[in-house]
Model the fold of this input.
Amino acid sequence: MKLYDMQMAPNPRRVRVFLAEKGIDNVELVPVDISKREHKSDGYMAGVNRMGQVPTLELDDGSHISESMAICRYFEEIQPDPPLFGRDAKEKAEVEMWSRRAELNIMTCVAAGFRHTSDFFKGLEDQVPAWGELNKGKAPERFTWLDGVLADREFVAGANYSVADITALIAVDFARVVGLKVTDEWPNLARWHGAMSARPSAKA
Done:
């Protein structure tokens, strides 16, 4: 199997962290240089991902799976342990809920702030700078929200480490692109972030 990857992009990192937590090390990483627009090349879009996105997983039969959570779900199915999408019906629903909330409340906000204000995306996005600045301004509020969530729990979705923690970690770390970092202003978030960052998988 091959994973078309971009080292600095958040969604490929989400898959790499997931694989590291699973102990899966037989996936070849194929670097795709977004800065050189390799993901928009005719060859990549025709042969790997018609939408010109990373990450994309290429299976041994030559088929492709894209979208980071879909790729993670594939690996959850072929290697259930440790379970990162939940252990029973209720926990699976809670993991899905909190992963989605972390993505919508933090990742989407930060991405909008970055994509609509950065020169990197000129020519790739129909940029609306005012929308980007608005989202940058909202990002600290989203940290405050997550800090409140973590006031009474060790992990984002409750009792166990899950893909919701992976999503939230990647989103929080990605916020650095809009100048936002975890500080003591958010003590619960800082505690959780320190613990998640200390896991070996966080370096994937």
About this structure: The mean pLDDT is 95. The chain has two domains: 2-78, 89-203.
